[in-house]
Structure formats: C-alpha cells, structure tokens
Amino acid sequence: MSTNLNTRTISETSDKITTEEYAKTTPAAVLTVIETNVGDLTVPEWYIPTTKAVYDKQGVVESWAQKKFPVHTVSLCPDSDDSVFRSKLRNTSKNQTAYQYTDGTGICYHYSTICGIRTKSGLVFNNQQNYASGRVTLYSVPHRFSDGNLPLTTLREIVRGTDVDLFDITEVIEGKNAELVVFGSGREVVAIGYDATAAQGNGEFAFLLTEDEQEMVRREPDRIYDILMPVEVARFLNDGVKLNENPRIYGHKADGETIMRQGEHFFVPYPDFEYRYADTVVGDRANPDGLEKPQTNKVRYGRRYRAHHDLGSHIPRDYIQLTDGRRFVRGTIRHLRREHRMLNLGETWHEVFTNDREVTVIGDRSTLSD
Fold first, then answer.
1. What is the pLDDT of residue 363?
2. Which has the least CB within 10 A, 168, 289, 294, 334?
C-alpha cells in the first residue's frame, strides 16, 4: 500500500478500539487512525505522522520527544500480544534508536542504555544513569520535554519479575531527602534515598517497599530511613543517644559517646566493654588468660586479608564476636571498594547493629548488604 499522512480522529467509543483494556491504558482522551506500512493503526492523538525516520545528532531524541511517528517504519512490538505496534527513529550512525508505541508509551536508547521513557500516563523521564559524556550528552531528552530524572536502569531491575514495568510509572512523590516512585495503581512503590556516609558518586540507593511500608511513608517519604534503622538503634535514640551519619572529614574519629554509621552498619559505643576468652567465638586467642586483643584485619590497597568478620565489604581493624552473637569493633572501618569514607572508632569498643534489608546502590549492580 502507498504511505500517506491522511489521518482521521475517532472517539474512544469507536469500534476501532478492540478492547476496553486498551482504551484504559491509552493516556490520550482522543485517538487517531494513522495509515502506515502495516495498515491502519489506532494511536494517541498526540502522535505526529511523518515520513522521516533518520536524524542527525540530537534530532532523534527531540523528534521522539515531539512525538513524531514515522509511518513507514512500523512493526509489531516484540513480546506483544499482536495489538501493540511500534515506530522506529534512529540517527545516521545507528548508535541511537527511539521507539513510539501505539499504546502511547515510548523509549530512547543510546546503544543499549536507556536515555528516556514515556509512560502510559504520558510522563517523560530522563535516565540519570545514562552516563554518556561529551557530545553524546545530546542523546538525553531535553529538559523542556522532560518531567524529571529517575534511575531508570535500577528501577527496571528492581521491578523485574513483578506485574509492572517502567511504563507503569504514574507518580513521583518527593520528600526532603527521599522520593517514592509509584507504579500502576500503587501496589508497587520504590523508595529512593541518599546515604550520607557514602563516598562521592555512590550515595543513592533504592529498594521496593512492602504494602505496610507504603502506608507509613506515602505522606512522609523521608521516613524510609526509619525502615532502614535497626530496632535496637532506634531504642538508643529514644533514650537520648546521638547518631552521626555524616562524617564529612576523611578519617573522622568517633568521640566514644555517639552512635556512628557506615552504610548498613551502626556502631554503638561501649566504653566499659570487657570480654573474656571463653566468651568469644572470633578473635585472637593467643593469650587465653584475661582480656584479649582481637583478630586484626589488615587492608592494603583495597584488598582484604584475614577478614574474620561478617561485615561484608566493611573491614574493621579489630573485631570480636561473642558466643551470644553480639559483635564488637574498634579502630578504623574501611570499605573494600572504597564506596564509603573511612571511619575511625578510636580505641573504644562499639557494638555492631546491621540493617539486613536488600538495598540496591544506584549506578552499581552491588547492594548495600554486600
């Protein structure tokens, strides 16, 4: 068939809409029938039919954001139910592609990295994890078309295996130091926060909230930090003990009175702590009489030696574990991959309390519980 740009407008009650579900997921109040290379397709009215599909430089993402719909590049969307088609735009060097879907959604790629998306509700988000630099930053969605930036790569991994995907994002609820990304009807909510103890570039994290947690944080997104705090630490805070989560100075030394934090580990000071050999399961047992000097865990050039502890990538200088399971550390605490600033607890023993919630570090496939 010949391709032309003739269009006609129909209402949502038209028989051109094959299912009620399709009408519900289409954000436009009015749909348009466009004649394409695969026949007549019903699409949201915002699409602008065109015969141009190849662009230079930023032309791809701008045309995508302007909702240009090349009518001669339409094909069936992979993994669809034979009802969703897509139109393709690309640049001359073929390292950027963009797709407009007939259900109103869309996505841009730079190679295999997501640059931006358009959701079923019509929201457009840039991917803050698109780390292109220099001239290739032109591949991001221009701010005048964007509703904000989100870590789309991480969000896609977090909701993988659930009933929603990136196109189901309906709302972003912002707090002072946290935000909530709401998917679909609100059954899936991802919390995004910032770890003040992290080294530069590793501070943001995200995790999926349970239904009970959603009720607690919807009005106050910053309460996600309460979810990540061990119950024992919360009790100390209620008793008036202070918490320091922001040691800005490299090698910051604890004062022996304040609870310190590094990542998921909280260190509560015990100035009068003493232990006996018979009470330990981990530590230096060279001198079984009296008090012991714990096993020393050495770190050199980011590599771990003799790491007899269960703090994951957080390496303490001195570590002891008692037979009742309680753990104590002192001295410096370094991170194996240098994702956190070094913490110096001095010679005061601190009991370790850990939040074991699985939390994904944004920009890294590792987790804070590693």
1. 59
2. 289
What does pLDDT average to over the chain?
79
- Tokens 């110096």 appear where? 344
Q: Where exactly are the structural domains of the chain?
A: 7-150, 163-228+358-370, 231-354
Residue 6: is it exposed, middle or buried by C-beta count within 10 angstroms (0-12/13-18/19+)? exposed
Sign, CA torsion 100/90/63/39: negative
Task: Compute the distance between CA of residue 120 and CA of residue 99 in angstroms, rounded to an integer.
Answer: 14
Residue that the structure tokens 């998917």 belong to:
183
Q: How confident is the model at residue 202, as a pLDDT?
A: 64
* Pick from 266, 269, 295, 265: nearest CA to 280: 295
Distance from CA of residue 150 to its chain's centroid?
Answer: 8
DSSP 8-state code for residue 171: E
Query: Is 217 in a helix, a strand, or coil?
Result: helix
Q: Are 254 and 261 in contact (CB under 8 A)?
A: no
The answer to whether residues 164 and 183 touch, using CB atoms and an 8 Å cutoff, is: yes
Instruction: Phi first, then psi: give them for residue 156, nearest 5 degrees.
Output: -60, -40
The predicted-structure confidence for 303-326, as pLDDT tens digits, reads as follows 333 445 678 888 888 888 888 888
Residues 186 and 163: their CA atoms lie apart, in Å, by 12
Least confident residue range of 51-55, 207-211, 311-315: 311-315
Q: What is the pLDDT of residues 154-195, one digit of tens each?
A: 999 999 989 999 999 999 999 999 999 999 878 899 999 988
Q: Residue 304: is it exposed, middle or buried by C-beta count within 10 angstroms (0-12/13-18/19+)?
A: middle
Distance CA 114, CA 222 (A): 28
Alpha-carbon separation of residue 125 from 80, 102, 108 (angstroms): 23, 19, 10
Q: What is the Cα–Cα distance from 309 to 329, expressed in whole angstroms?
A: 10
